[in-house]
Design a protein that fits this description.
10-stranded antiparallel sheet; mainly beta; AttH-like fold
């Protein structure tokens, strides 16, 4: 119990077992690092993680890499003994590779991919969701529920990059670029979800992260969502646990149109779908699911505030280099929201 309390109050740290006696196997945990260079030509997702299976022979650590420019995905597997992570802080070692909130050191050289170098993070914008006993991070009070299928955390909304990486036979200078860090842990990814994230708006400090998914709950399911727009030092938060609701969710082959609102604000997001790569994701039977993700989406965002004079637009812009996933039975997700049919 003490370990659960400690890790819940440390979302960025490691939440998993130290051995194979964990009572809720299988278990996965992954940290998602997004890196975009200053010219926005190099776009990478680097995902270190670990998977503990029911059969300990399938336990392993991994580093997964998505090249947003080409869609190429590589999955680099390491013995479980080469995984070391802190439960009280953000410090991960996988073989010769190291990850923290201050940067990453990569030393990957195998037939799939060569990716080596050091990237430092500076001027971080930590997740503006405060970690408090009543609401420990982006999941709110749901973070305290011990039987959730999947937990989510945002470590850094936005930070600068400094350093370079060798990719194959090319040197990629990331100095002056922007980064983002989030993470997931639990038993499996949801049956269906939509996720998007971008921190490339005209306003340099503006960031968006948004996700909606089918959430198992006490023998049933519900559509749960978390949306955060950080703009001019303020977090505009829309979430199931805050009483916000979805007004529109329309999904076509070309775009995702999603609108959420709370008592004071309405946030409309229209994400263009683009080609990407197939990442490997966890299920109860193993790391055996393929999910499509792009780093080339664009998300049009409009935030309006209700007032006695009607809705007033307080922010409108388009985010570039957006990560976008739209996975699983999305029509079921949409039907759970009981929304009328609308053109996307």
């Amino acid at each position: 119990m003490f370990s659960f309390i400690q890790t819940t109050l440390t979302p960025a740290g490691y939440h998993g077992p130290r051995d194979d006696r964990h009572p809720r196997l299988p278990f996965f945990e992954g940290w998602y690092f997004k890196l975009v260079d200053a010219h926005e030509s190099t776009r990478l997702a680097v995902i270190p993680g670990v998977f503990h299976a029911r059969d300990p022979r399938e336990n392993h650590a991994f580093i997964q890499v998505l090249d947003g420019a080409t869609g190429q995905v590589s999955y680099h597997q390491y013995p479980i003994e080469e995984f070391l992570a802190s439960k009280t802080g953000f410090d991960i070692h996988i073989g010769p590779n190291h990850f923290s909130q201050m940067g990453m050191t990569l030393d990957i050289a195998d037939p799939q991919r060569v990716l080596c170098g050091e990237v430092r993070f500076h001027d971080p914008l930590p997740s503006p969701w405060p970690v408090t006993p009543l609401s420990p991070g982006i999941m709110g009070w749901y973070a305290w529920v011990p039987f959730m299928e999947c937990y989510h955390g945002v470590v850094s909304f936005n930070h600068g990059l400094e350093g370079d990486l060798i990719m194959g036979d090319q040197r990629c200078d990331l100095t002056g670029g922007r980064g983002y860090i989030e993470k997931d842990w639990g038993r499996s990814f949801p049956a269906a979800w939509i996720w998007t994230q971008t921190n490339h708006f005209k306003h340099a400090d503006t960031c968006l992260t948004a996700s909606i998914a089918i959430i198992p709950w006490l023998g049933s399911v519900f559509p749960g969502f978390i949306v955060g727009l950080w703009h001019e030092g303020q977090l505009y938060r829309f979430a199931t646990y805050t009483g916000a609701h979805t007004n529109v969710l329309d999904i076509s082959t070309d775009q995702v149109h999603w609108e959420v609102s709370n008592r004071d604000y309405t946030l409309e997001m229209i994400a263009s779908r683009a080609e990407g790569g197939l990442l490997i994701a966890p299920t109860p039977s193993g790391m055996d699911r393929r999910i499509a993700e792009t780093l080339d989406a664009r998300v049009s965002v409009r935030l309006s505030q209700r007032s006695s004079r009607g809705n007033q637009i307080i922010f409108e812009d388009e985010g570039r280099n957006a990560g976008l996933e739209a996975v699983g039975d999305l029509e079921r997700l949409r039907q759970m929201l009981a929304l009328p049919n609308q053109a996307a």
